[in-house]
Specification:
Distance between the termini: 73 Å
Shape: globular
Helix content: 40-55%
Structural class: alpha/beta
Strand content: 15-25%
Strand order of the largest sheet: 13-12-11-7-6-5-4-14
Order of helices and strands: HEEEEHEHHEHHEEEEHEHEHEHEHH
Number of helices: 12
Length: 386
């Protein structure tokens, strides 16, 4: 009996060790797979002549064909930080769908209130989730345009931030970017850092009262950099702000590109000149990002406006959509820009084509656009891989 008990004990011990060994091997294999997945992407850099994007190791051209993933299509719609913890599976599914559309870049909009607990304290949970997003991008084969400092929901903006003067706000913004860059600096999935979505600067003698502007559907997509420029010029303010935030990023990440997505005022107001893409202001920015929505039968005007931002750096249309034009107009706009533009970024809000096609008029129209987007990727993305 004693021998039997001892044999059973030894067998249990053996099985336990075997189970631990299997678990260990599984972890090692998972780690190897993750390493393999994380090296699938080559970092994207600017070509030696500073005119376009290339894959770092091969030098082959890279053309951006992407989507803004700024909120989901729920009712009400939600910003990514409102569901990327409890419903991470939604983000995973959406990234898979984006990849199936033929996109290679996803523009993510990070909300400052979700990343800064106070003027000096960063939210560790949000940074951890950002790191998880990087891994998802790496394994999915998508690059990230990380757009920061968003305050899209006015009710979420903390009082301590809203009451600050511009100098104090800039310090908070610099801390935000330094923290984000520290998480992202080693990931090949980072395409770029976009300092802020559509920053605004009031003109000389014009004092504004609110930091947020550009309200659309309950979101505030624009932000003032200062409420009053005082004795400075708009260019002086823009350069000081850009230089300060780029410096904050470079403390942690000396490699990845930096840009700022702007409204092309030179397109909407004839005679106006680029502000953030003035030669001096943009000296530390890697490439040009503008947001342009062509109007029906005004494609030539849109292309002429786009040309104004051809300043010797790569140029992408970081926001585009047939908002006020037809699909044919948009195709003419894209084709017309292929000789000098280096990328186009539309939108994806979490509903696949098949689901949209069964919805109401707006959803059906969006499904047709996404179908076009998917088909167009074959000539935009596939051509660069030949």
């Amino acid at each position: 009996m004693r021998d039997l008990k001892e044999n059973i004990y030894n067998m249990k011990k053996y099985l336990l060790l075997l189970q631990i060994g299997c678990i260990w091997l599984g972890v090692q294999n998972a780690g190897a797979n993750n390493l393999k997945d994380s090296t699938r992407l080559q970092s994207i850099v600017i070509s030696k002549d500073s005119t376009h994007f290339v894959y770092e190791h091969t030098g082959k051209p890279f053309v951006v064909w992407g989507v803004n993933y700024d909120h989901d299509a729920g009712h009400p719609s939600r910003l990514i930080e409102e569901y990327w913890n409890a419903e991470w599976y939604v983000v995973v599914a959406d990234f898979k769908e984006i990849k199936q559309l033929g996109a290679n870049v996803v523009r993510i909009h990070l909300q400052l209130p979700k990343f800064m607990n106070s003027a000096t304290t960063v939210n560790g949970s949000s940074l951890k989730q950002l790191a998880q997003l990087l891994k998802l991008a790496e394994t999915t084969g998508l690059y990230l345009d990380i757009t920061g400092l968003a305050c899209y929901r006015k009710k979420d903006v903390p009082e301590w931030y809203d009451k600050m003067d511009y100098a104090a706000r800039w310090e908070v913004q610099a801390r935000f970017w330094e923290a984000v860059a520290k998480v992202c600096n080693k990931s090949p999935a980072i395409f770029c850092y976009d300092l802020m979505n559509e920053p605004l600067i009031p003109g000389k003698g014009h004092v504004v009262k609110e930091w947020l502007a550009g309200e659309l559907g309950g979101y505030f997509f624009d932000q003032q950099l200062t409420l009053d420029i005082g004795d400075r010029t708009q260019k002086q303010v823009a350069k000081c702000w850009v230089d300060k935030l780029v410096e904050a990023i470079r403390k942690q990440d000396e490699k990845h590109m930096v840009t700022v997505g702007v409204i092309p005022l030179a397109y909407y107001f004839p005679g106006a000149k680029p502000l953030f893409y003035d030669k001096e202001v943009s000296s530390k920015l890697g490439f040009v990002s503008i947001h342009l929505y062509p109007k029906h039968k005004q494609v030539d005007k849109a292309l002429a406006g786009l040309k104004l931002y051809e300043i010797g750096k790569p140029l992408i249309i970081e926001e585009m959509f047939p908002l006020e034009c037809t699909l044919d107009d948009m195709d003419d706009f894209i084709e017309g820009g292929r000789g000098f533009a280096d990328g186009w970024v539309s939108f994806y809000w979490g509903k696949p084509i098949e689901e949209l096609a069964k919805g109401q008029f707006g959803d059906i129209y969006l499904s047709k656009w996404l179908e076009y987007f998917k088909n167009k990727s074959k000539s935009i993305v596939d051509d660069q891989n030949k």
